[in-house]
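## retry 2 of 3
previous attempt timed out at serialization; input unchanged, resubmitting
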Amino acid sequence: MSTASSPLSAHLPSTPFRAPPPGVTPNFDHPNSNASRAYITAGVCIPIIVLFASLRIYSNLYIHRSRTWSDFTFMLSTAWALIYQGLTMGAVTQGFFGVHAWDLKVDDTRNAPFLFALLLESLYGPFIWIIKLSMFLMYLQLFGTRRYFRHLVCAGLLLSGLYYFSATVASVVLCAPRGRQTYIMSFATPRCRKSIQLLVVTGIYNVMSDLYLLLLPIRETMRLHNSLRKRIGVLAVFMTGLA
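## retry succeeded, writing output
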């Protein structure tokens, strides 16, 4: 698709980026925004992340005085999460995100929002994998003496890494401009819209891999020589993801 033949470029001032649902009229001048919800969510979640991350780091480094690869990847994932959230809030503040696509005119959304979207998309998959890597490494540290357990951890680690990195590459390739396309034109193509289906698949995989992480340590935890109450407490900690 060239810029000369694109229907989008022929009617830039009045063409919405995406067609609205039936019965909905685009509101270019005063679009509804979900920015306030994003601010509230970030305002609640970021302090919680910082609090519990600080507790774990302080406990391991200064009380138990242990430094493991799990601790390193945990600190990396925490920093990555804060950076990712900061970039997202920046995009919301600039009006790039939080507004319905049909409330945006093509001439109001040049390259910057879409470059931002590609940047966040390229960071998302590796970010999620680093989080899971931290959990897998912690499991190896705790229960790695069992051969079958090491195999299960390595399988989960490799499979999740392959999926998240391949999904990241696929989503970026689907929406990256080709030929003389601008970023706006590329994001409006049916090819880029397939990335939405990929997001659904990624969401399903997230749930399945999280379930795998929750089920993985149950057998070894229940074999510990502690009281049932303590073993259940350990499992509860694993289920919160705060271990």
